[in-house]
Please model this.
Amino acid sequence: MGELEGFVERCREAREAAEAMESPLVACHYDADGLSGGALVVKAFAGIGVRARSMALRKLSSDEIGLLEREGGDEIVFVDLGGGASKAIDARLLPGGRKIVIIDHHQTPGGKALQANPHLFGFDGGSELSSSGCGYFVFRKPELVELGVVGAVGDMQFPLSGLNRTMLSEGEKAGRVAVETDLSLFGRVSRPLVWFLQYCTEPFLPGLTGKRHACALFFEELGIPLRDARGEWRKYFQLSREEKVKVVSGLAAYLYSKDVDDETVRSLVGEVYSFPMQEQGTELSDAKEFSTVLNACGRHRKPEIGIGVCLGDEGAKREAKELLLLHRRQLREAVEFAGNAVEDFGAYYFLDGRGKIDDGLIGVVAGMLYGGAIRRDKPVIALSLNEEGKVKASARSTKKLVEEGINLGTVMARASEGIGVGGGHNVAAGANLEGDLNLFLVRCGKLIGESRKQEN
Model:
């Protein structure tokens, strides 16, 4: 049980410090949680008549700290960044008299800068609250709750629990979030039925993903028409309850026939979160689809478009749709490559995606391998190259492995000592490497093995 009163009080302090700013810069991470959280803070400032600038960053290394020293101004709010770099912020940004507020959910040692972070109060930021959710608790206004939910879903924290659940309940009471148990695949709201399965990559559907004719045949055999009486393509959310039951049971039976594991099949159904105040039938009316739109913007180096989408800009929404198409195509290609290239390294599964998979996609792809390409019995470590040609490592695990003692944030931090910088959550983490890659991989195997032995 976390220290709820202390966390709420810290959020109040962060809000007061932020609302005292006159010309703030919101520096956020470039993924779905960072962009939704950054937009949430920009929107909160707008609500009190303060115009905030925003800057999305892929990481917060020495170079980015230098950029903020030059261009950040005197007032900075970090979102989904800063917790792991608190020492650098204390050393390089605070001495200049800057006003700093950190809203984060990564594992952190804390520091001198004012930081609202669930980890500092005994809550797990990897599963109980994302940075956008933390931002919601800082400002706690009903009109911000959708972005808090989007960020949590984007950070794979569903079904929402802990502090996320409190946020969700407040959103339901305000009529801004609806919750139901249903098929939880991407595209349930925005894609015609055939595309819904054809382009499904989470999980990968063997024999269906990427195969249009097979998907059409699947629905035909279930007796579900692909078009309505007007000739319009039907979408999953438009089906009757009886038709939905047919689809879910049919998919489960099909996947079992393909020897897909129980956990993957069970993951087909779960809580889904929708937004009644958004235009229905669009990506922004469903939390999972909204978060994927933001990931597409950030990972294709157009984070400002993602922030614009969150703030309701119509031009940004149109551009985001184009980025989403590109994102899903590249993701399908990357998943196909990864499924054939992943190797068993004993303590973990290893994917070398250098030169094959973009560093903005590698973490997502690593997690998606659990959709059928590998078993869920050990973590995945995947490699890519960043814009500078240096190695980026992304690690993914499962909740069950975390319960067994594996903390990937600790593994990445310790394995990269002296050869790079690493850290993150217990279930998802990463490292940027400049030294001996083989040493890093050997250390990872040793640390993962030791953590499992200690638990046993």
In short: The chain has a mean pLDDT of 92. The two ends are 24 Å apart (CA to CA). The first strand starts at residue 25 and ends at 29.
